[in-house]
Amino acid sequence: MHVDLSVACWRTSSYSTAPEGLCVEVADGITGVVPVRDSKRPTEPVVMVGADAWVPFVDSIKQSP
């Protein structure tokens, strides 16, 4: 599946730890998927997480120690 991300509005995840350089960005508003990228490498490939898998993914992160 090809998704045009040229107009994506990226935001830094609330789970990013900027001082340590672990900055994850997500793009909202893309139908069916949640694009995820490393803010330090915005031109590198993007991980596409299915929209139906996004909430369980985030919930599992919240439960991690």
Describe the fold and architecture.
The chain is α+β, with helices and mostly antiparallel strands and 65 residues long. 20% of the residues lie in helices and 29% in strands. It is built from one helix and four strands. Strands 1-2-3-4 form a four-stranded antiparallel sheet. Strand 3 and strand 4 form a beta hairpin. The mean pLDDT is 85.
The gist of it:
By secondary structure, the chain is of the alpha+beta class.
Shape: flat
- Most strands sheet: 4 strands, antiparallel
What percent strand? 25-35%
Low-confidence stretches: none
Distance between the termini: 34 Å
- Binned, the helix content reads 10-25%
Sheet/helix structural class: alpha+beta
Q: Please count the beta strands (DSSP E, at least 2 residues each).
A: 4
Strand order of the largest sheet: 1-2-3-4
The succession of helices and strands, N to C, reads: EEEEH
Overall pLDDT score: 85
SSE blueprint:
Elements: E1 9-12, E2 24-28, E3 33-38, E4 47-50, H1 51-63
Antiparallel strand pairs: 1-2, 2-3, 3-4
Task: Spell out the key features of this protein.
alpha+beta; flat; 4 strands; four-stranded antiparallel β-sheet; 65 residues
